[in-house]
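Lecture notes, unit on protein representations.

Consider one protein chain, 149 amino acids long.
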Amino acid sequence: MIIHRSGEGRPIAFRGASIVRKADATDTGGRWAVGEATQPPGFENSPHSHSEPEAFYVLDGDFVLYGSGEPTAIDRGCFVLIPPDEIHGFRAGVDGGRFLAIWPPMMDGYFEEMIAAAAAGSATPESIAEIGRRHGVTGHGALPDLTSR
């Protein structure tokens, strides 16, 4: 049994977000991973897809979620289930936000490789795409610019 109190877990700094890993794929027999993710105001998670489902539950703040339809505002108490291969991304609101995420197990290796590439200064578009391919993640460009709306 693993018990993590508030703030406990393995910290991960990823592209400006702070993630506290509560359980990883090793802990769950390769089934899933769980983390509490905190994003600063305006944080962008660019559109991507992966071969496994993902879910999150908003704990604080608000986000605009981008997927196959119109952008959707989500806030505290919202649950999101993203099916395999669905393109999705989000932007944190003016106060940032925090959510509990349930990731597919391959995301553990993806986070670690992306962090290592950034630390080594070798995070080129090509290397990022290759890391994604190894972990079933595909990038799909940038989030739309909403400043003109």
